[in-house]
Amino acid sequence: GTLEALELPEQALSVAALVRDYAGSFSCSDQLQYFRALDLPERVEALQGLLLRGGVGTNDDLLGYIDASGRHRPGLLERTLHEDGLGDRAEFVTLCARAGRAACERGQYREAIRLFHLGKCHGEVLQVLCRCLRLPVWREPAAAATNEAAMLSQDVQRFFGIYERNLDRYALSSHAWAVARKLYAARMFHMHCDQGRPEAALDIFDREQLLPLGAEDVGTSELQNELLSEWPRIVGDYVQILRHAASQGTVHMAALRGRVRQLQSFLAAHAHRVTLDQPSIAALASLALF
Q1: Could you tell me the pTM of the whole model?
Q2: Helices marked H in the chain
Q3: What Rg do the C-alpha atoms of the chain give, in angstroms?
Q4: Are both 179 and 151 inside the same structural domain?
Q5: Which InterPro entries does the UniProt record give (predicted)?
Q6: Domain for residue 215, yes or no?
Q7: Model confidence pLDDT, tens digit, residues 149-169
């Protein structure tokens, strides 16, 4: 009796693994039907594995569609859970939150964003958005041009818009949102620069105050301290914009000189924080001649 009891979990596990492996060759809808044969713990594990399988965690038919307001229409997974009497919507929310954590740990950020949102982990969504906005992929033209990067960029823009419209409803930390907003603005700034739209980039730079050019004591700002790693690239693109404006004559020289002096003062005050690459140094030196 005791030995049999000890063997049962291993046997159950092997049966569950066999069911999951066999079901994996079928559609999501069919897999949900096969998972009905599993006990609840194994079934939850199988469902999480399904959500983390390539592309499944971004499938609107399975998870349900998230509209522009952030609201969600139940998909196949939630309807199946309800039909099987596995509880109310709380079961679906818990499953999504758990799968979201696993997706984040694996670097499956598109899945993590959706799953955390459906799991009502709104603070975690913001953290994943910030992590995505800091990814080095955006600095590498070839990598940023891939289909996967393009889809991630679209998701980041989409969910940033959703969360911007629901700050109070999602009870987001004002500091966390301020960091996310700055990172998002920086991403849009660089995107316009890469697309050859310096006027649009400069508008974002000024409106969002991407660099604290007028601040007397940046070192005391917790927000700015979190953005220090972004400064060199922002400065680099800003310098290129100013050089373009100078060469094209699209800005009054007095205004241009004012911007250059302001930037030079900022860099002098924060030389220990901002290390520029050689092209930026050369461009800044050429601006000093205007």
Answers
A1: 0.83
A2: 2-23, 28-35, 40-51, 60-63, 76-83, 89-105, 109-118, 122-133, 141-144, 147-164, 174-194, 198-208, 222-226, 231-248, 253-269, 278-287
A3: 25
A4: no
A5: Nucleoporin_int_Nup93/Nic96 (IPR007231)
A6: no
A7: 999 999 999 999 999 999 999
